[in-house]
Design brief:
With 232 residues, this protein is mainly alpha-helical. It is 50% helix and 12% strand. The protein binds fe (ii) ion. The site of fe (ii) ion has 7 residues, from helix 2.
């Protein structure tokens, strides 16, 4: 395998790059490259996040996020074993579906946890300018983000703040499951609207969870990702 496809894979992994290592077999020409993923640790003290309990955050991270990473590794290994010229199409279909869901879920969960802080913050710099340009005001941006989350109350999915390199602007996207992230967008901030993200603290009251999340957004992470995206 040449350097070009390996480099492309790393770029494609985007946010996963820091948590991903390539299997040793990738060094052998002609052998399938199997990506290996490891859960990223939380970047905050889960016992010091106002409105979201340590028990909730630890359970979400250890069970849902880390479980997804394990599933992504298992699925990647299973795909690497397949002889695609001979494998039953249903076997390929099932594994490809699981790979896609686990991959997106891993990226979105990492974005979610990286976007949580222990104290309120405000966007600044280039991101603040882009928010003002595309939403008119930060309050409008936050209101759209929260309202989009409320449309998923009682259901599941993600709200994602995205930079579109194609349109050179920000969007807030609605995704009813892990597989619906917008094509071509660079995700900057994600809010998990699966019930496991809030039920332990708020029962079925998604609105209280959304209000709590909006107050602990670590905008510096979104700003860092936006700066990286603008360099692409
Ligand atoms: Fe989750």
């Amino acid at each position: 395998m040449t350097d070009i496809p390996r480099r492309s894979l790393a770029v494609g992994a985007g946010l996963l790059a820091g948590a991903m290592a390539l299997d040793a077999r990738s060094q052998v020409p002609g052998i399938v490259t199997v990506p290996k993923f490891a859960p990223k640790p939380m970047t905050f003290n889960p016992d010091k996040v106002p409105g979201l309990s340590g028990n909730l955050l630890r359970s979400h991270h250890a069970n849902n996020y880390a479980g997804t990473v394990t599933k992504l590794n298992t699925t990647s290994e299973e795909l690497a074993k397949l002889d695609f010229a001979k494998a039953p199409i249903l076997a390929v279909s099932g594994l490809k579906r699981e790979e896609h869901i686990a991959y997106n879920s891993t990226i979105l969960h990492e974005l979610y946890f990286d976007g949580i802080g222990e104290a309120p913050t405000q966007p600044s710099g280039l991101l603040a300018q882009a928010i003002a340009r595309d939403f008119g005001h930060l309050d409008r941006c936050k209101a759209e983000f929260a309202a989009t989350g409320k449309t998923l109350a009682g259901g599941s999915g993600w709200v994602i703040l995205v930079h579109s390199p194609r349109d050179k602007r920000l969007y807030i996207h609605w995704a009813a499951d892990h597989s619906m992230a917008p094509a071509g967008g660079v995700p900057l901030l994600a809010m998990d609207m699966y019930e496991h993200a809030y039920h332990m603290d708020y029962g079925a009251d998604a609105t209280k969870y959304i209000d709590a999340f909006m107050k602990v957004i670590k905008w510096t992470n979104a700003e860092r990702l936006y700066r990286e995206a603008m360099r692409l």
